[in-house]
Design goal:
- This protein has 642 residues and is α/β, with parallel strands linked by helices.
- The protein folds into 3 domains: 17-76 and 275-511, ANL, N-terminal domain (Rossmann fold), CATH 3.40.50.12780; 77-249, Rossmann fold (3-Layer(aba) Sandwich); 515-641, ANL, C-terminal domain (GMP Synthetase, Chain A, domain 3, 2-Layer Sandwich), CATH 3.30.300.30.
- The strands form 9 sheets. A 7-stranded mixed beta sheet has the order 5-4-17-16-18-19-20, with helices on both faces.
- Helix 6 packs across helix 7.
- The longest helix has 17 residues, at 109-125.
- It is globular, with a radius of gyration of 24 Å.
- The two termini are 32 Å apart.
- The mean pLDDT is 92.
- Bound molecules: 5'-O-[(S)-ethoxy(hydroxy)phosphoryl]adenosine.
- 5'-O-[(S)-ethoxy(hydroxy)phosphoryl]adenosine is lined by residues 262, 307-309, 384-387, 409-414, 435, 495-497, 509, 512, 518, 523.
- InterPro entries: ACAS_N, AMP-bd_C, AMP-bd_C_sf, AMP-dep_synth/lig_dom, ANL_N_sf.
- It comes from Haloarchaeobius iranensis.
- Residues 528-606 form the AMP-binding enzyme C-terminal domain.
């Protein structure tokens, strides 16, 4: 094990007794399945309400992709999240919204059902039909949840675009999805500044090669502020359809529930489509078993709805179980330092699910903030998105959880839809710095370059060796799957992460090994950022790499050459930032831009990004004789020291 912040020998924390006695899964037998794979997954599907029962758990054709889960089954995700709870807990709180301006709004299941139905009726009125793609471009707010569930109700496919993305990024994601419907807002506050979202949405519409069929605008900043000329007002839509109930459309288990774009290894956003049956089954199952949520639980997942965590563990997981979900606008480490703990205390939050970067911010602020508030409602702490190093783990455990909440470090991806690796909180001991083992029903290994399973302690690629229900549809056919060398009838998915496994099967994830950067738990594509930078007048070439950063995991560093010789003469750093902000969003601008006369290249002219990464990280980069221009290395090192 070479990672400095991975698990330390002997650092093992058992689940607290007080937690075990109430855990949804408390015993080893309950954690495993009776039935062999893939039939074991029937247990997850059986927790859902189906319009028509499925015939087969998994259809894997002739052994390989495409894989289809719960074949023959029909269900509706909105019914599972709302309708089925109305009788028993219609008056229980489904959703609490903690808005950026200290707003707190609650919705009971009945109230959310009513709003979702009115929105569904409104969308139908605007012409939205089954399988149409409806894009939302909204901050995390109740209307965004209502639109997601309304789409699910009528069999439309939602495509949530993170509100911080630029107009260009929105247009690309709409066009690629063939989306003709947009729900946006007048504006919103981001880190204290008003963002004119309506204008950005208008710019995106102009950038599209086709006209939209309908736009709906939500008043986020000021009532009545949204224009109505070329868009319907969300409030008008609600008023017009108040009290309407829309018949839910039964969807096939493999029918798309939503589309989402993430960063892949190319310059284009990567489409990920999640299914109605497999996705919902595994998301509900893991919310219950891993995050220990039931209908009495209040969970606060701090992720924005624009990311997969917002979909799976803020909306679909908690609501499918009849729990109370807390939706917060803006990142908890962007605002007032007391606010996170006020949210916990005011809502009696039982489960806090956040990212290591957020916990590291809390850590820097100091223990006084959590200590000043009542955190006795907390029962479990979760982490997702990037490696949770041992030091942060212990701080989270002790200073947020008071030493008696299990910490679950959950590994998964946009593509996997739901958690695949973690520790079951009432059953397995935790090893700070390590994620844990594959959940029952999941088979994952760490493999070397030759595809052989690595010995404990040996670094390799994390690979998932069998399909799982919440897998994205794209993975059912994509080249991400390859035949397993030592089992020709089997297939495996290379996730793009490097990992190491210990003697007991606990996996420590070290980070991405492809051209995807993980910055503060968010995914960025180096190619996409490079593409934006080379659009700047005067820029010749750009290479983007990640530099290890103690706070945000990875910092974005861009190496840039300019057309007119002397480095940086004609191009300003601000131009680079502006180009990236316009193409992707302000959150993607590089933390550092290094202007350089040349980039290290192989003899065939390929930029050696690995070498740049090693230089930026102060690592030994070894032999440079394969370079066409080895002299550039000394130059870059000199700049690094400046
Ligand atoms: C990283 C977020 C270490 C990993 C749900 C993965 C993690 C990428 C963890 C997916 C974890 C996620 N420990 N690394 N617990 N969870 N990652 O698609 O590199 O935004 O491939 O999904 O985040 O990011 P995505």
């Amino acid at each position: 094990m070479t990672a400095p912040d991975g698990p330390q020998a002997g650092d093992v924390v058992d689940p607290p007794t007080g937690f075990v006695t109430q855990a949804n899964v408390a015993a080893a037998e309950a954690a495993s399945f009776d039935a062999p794979w893939p039939d074991c997954w029937a247990a997850a599907a059986d927790r859902l309400d189906w319009h028509r029962g499925y015939d087969t758990v998994l259809d894997s054709g002739d052994g390989g992709p495409p894989f289809r889960w719960f074949v023959g089954g029909e269900l509706n995700a909105c019914v599972n999240c709302l309708d089925r709870h109305l009788d028993e807990r219609g008056d229980d709180v489904a959703l609490v919204w903690e808005g950026h301006l200290d707003e707190r709004v609650t919705y009971t299941y009945r109230e959310l059902f009513d709003e979702v139905n009115a929105v569904a009726a409104g969308l139908c009125d605007l012409g939205v039909g089954e399988d149409d793609v409806v894009t939302t471009y909204l901050p995390s707010m109740p209307a965004a949840v209502a639109v997601m569930l309304a789409c699910a109700r009528i069999g439309a496919v939602h495509n949530v675009v993170f509100a911080g993305f630029s107009a260009d990024a929105l247009a690309t994601r709409m066009e690629r999805a063939g989306s003709r419907y947009l729900v946006t807002c007048d504006g919103y506050y981001r880190r204290g500044e008003a963002v004119n979202q309506r204008r950005r949405a208008d710019n995106a519409r102009m950038a599209l090669p086709y006209d939209l069929d309908a736009t709906v605008v939500v008043d986020r900043l000021a009532a009545g502020s949204s224009h109505t000329e070329d868009g319907a007002r969300y409030d008008d839509l609600l008023a017009a359809h108040e009290g309407t109930t829309v018949e839910p459309v039964p969807r096939g288990a493999s029918d798309p529930l939503f589309r989402m774009y993430t960063s892949g290894t190319t310059g284009e956003p990567k489409a990920v489509t999640h299914t109605t049956g497999g996705y919902l089954a595994q998301v509900a199952w893991t919310t219950e078993r891993v995050l220990d949520v039931d209908s009495e639980t209040t969970i606060w997942g701090t992720a924005d709805l624009g990311w997969i965590t917002g979909h799976s563990y803020v909306v679909y997981g908690p609501l499918s179980l009849g729990a109370t979900t807390v939706l917060s606008e803006g990142s908890p480490d962007a605002a007032d330092r007391d606010r996170p703990w006020e949210i916990v205390a005011a809502n009696d939050v039982n489960v806090l699910y956040t990212a290591p970067t957020v916990v590291r911010s809390f850590m820097k602020w100091g223990t006084a903030y959590p200590e000043a508030h009542d955190r006795s409602s907390l029962r479990l702490l979760g982490s997702v998105g990037e490696p949770l190093d041992a030091e942060t783990w212990h701080w989270y455990h002790e200073h947020v959880g008071g030493g008696d909440c299990p910490v679950v470090d959950t590994w998964w991806q946009t593509e996997t839809g739901a958690v695949l690796l973690t520790t079951l909180p009432g059953v397995e001991s935790m090893r700070p710095g390590s994620v844990g083992r594959p959940l029952a029903g999941i088979e994952a290994t760490v493999r070397d370059g030759a595809d052989a399973v690595c010995a404990p302690g040996e670094r390799g690629w994390l690979s998932v060796d069998r399909p799982w229900p919440a897998m994205a549809r794209e993975l059912a056919t994509a080249s991400d799957w390859g035949a397993v060398a030592d089992a020709p009838e089997r297939w495996r998915y290379r996730v793009g992460d490097e990992a190491v496994v210990d003697e007991d099967g606990y996996v420590t994830v070290l980070g991405r090994v492809d051209d995807v950067l993980n910055v503060a738990g968010r995914r960025f594509s180096t190619a996409e950022i490079e593409h934006a930078i080379v659009q700047v007048d005067g820029v010749a070439e750009a290479a983007v790499i990640g530099r290890d950063d103690p706070d945000i995991g990875t910092a974005i560093v861009a190496y840039v050459t300019t057309e007119d010789g002397p480095a940086g003469a004609a191009v300003a750093r601000d131009d680079v930032d502006a180009a990236v902000a316009a193409a992707i969003g302000a959150g993607s601008t590089p933390d550092e831009v290094v202007f350089t006369p040349d980039l290290p290249k192989t003899r065939s002219g390929k930029i050696m990004r690995r070498l740049l990464g090693d230089i930026a990280n102060g690592e030994d980069y070894g032999d440079t004789s394969a370079l066409r221009n080895p002299e550039v290395v000394g130059e870059l090192e000199a700049r690094q020291r400046e």
